[in-house]
Specification:
Elements (H helix, E strand, L loop, with lengths): L12 H8 L3 H11 L9 H22 L6 H8 L3 H4 L6 H23 L6 H18 L1 H10 L5 H27 L8 H17 L1 H6 L4 H16 L9
Helix pairs in contact: 2-3, 3-8, 6-7, 6-9, 7-8, 7-9, 7-10, 7-12, 9-10, 10-12
Length: 243
């Protein structure tokens, strides 16, 4: 267990990227193994290579003009794969959408759960949760943007899963804040609303990435700022607040 005195220096983004190994190839390998019952191509190397192509092209087209405006014929033309080849991996656009959404949500939850150690103090866990989420959104920026923008086009069941995924992060933050209040590390009157505001700050990074690129703000610098900003609020005494 770490306390404030023994906490390591802020993890650099490059270190995170190397440790998580979240390449598109790794993601597509997981997708292939979890969907072998529906994917007709049985050679893993071939299937993974084509899935990388399909998902990369889908995200690129969708983030330019929207998933609903993308036709499978257009995906075939842009990816260089025949219509028959595409149907070897999914039966419809809706199935393709579900595959992309489901895998992304699982990755977020798995990485956050692995990197936010329950044995650490609330302060250390809050820092880890904020930094990990921001670094994940940078590694998987096209997917996060796609997921947010296309949520309205999901089926009722898929929208429910997307909401649950978003609430997973908020509930993790709320639990950390609540424990910090209990341990007298934090002074937070409403952990739920505070967690929601933190989540909005995290989303701003991948939804308005152009703004931070224009200002030459790196994801590591933004993570440092958000952590410092949040801690300056949650560690204040009520008497010192001006609102």
């Amino acid at each position: 267990m770490q306390d404030l005195q023994t906490a390591p220096q802020a993890e650099a983004f490059d270190e995170f990227r190397q440790m998580t190994l979240l390449s598109m190839e790794e993601i597509c390998r997981d997708i292939f193994r979890e969907n072998q019952h529906r994917i007709k191509i049985k050679k893993e190397a071939v299937a993974v290579r084509n899935l990388v192509n399909i998902f990369h092209t889908t995200l690129q087209i969708s983030n330019e003009k929207g998933f609903q405006n993308m036709s499978l014929r257009g995906l075939s033309r842009s990816s260089g794969l025949s219509m028959g080849a595409l149907y070897s991996y999914f039966a419809s656009k809706d199935e393709l959408l579900c595959m992309i959404q489901n895998q992304g949500q699982r990755i977020i939850q798995k990485v956050l759960a692995r990197r936010v150690d329950p044995a650490d103090s609330p302060t250390i866990r809050l820092r880890a949760a904020i930094r990990t989420h921001l670094y994940l959104t940078e590694v998987m920026q096209p997917w996060f943007y796609f997921s947010y923008m296309e949520a309205k086009n999901l089926s009722k069941d898929q929208r429910k899963k997307t909401i649950e995924s978003e609430l997973f992060t908020e509930e993790m933050l709320m639990g950390i804040l609540s424990e910090g209040v209990k341990n007298k590390e934090f002074t937070v009157e409403n952990p739920g609303l505070t967690a929601a505001v933190i989540k909005a700050m995290l989303q701003d990074w991948y939804l308005k990435r152009w703004k931070y690129r224009h200002r030459q703000v790196s994801v590591q610098a933004y993570a440092d700022f958000v952590i410092g900003f949040v801690e300056s609020v949650v560690r204040q005494s009520p008497e010192s607040r001006s609102w």
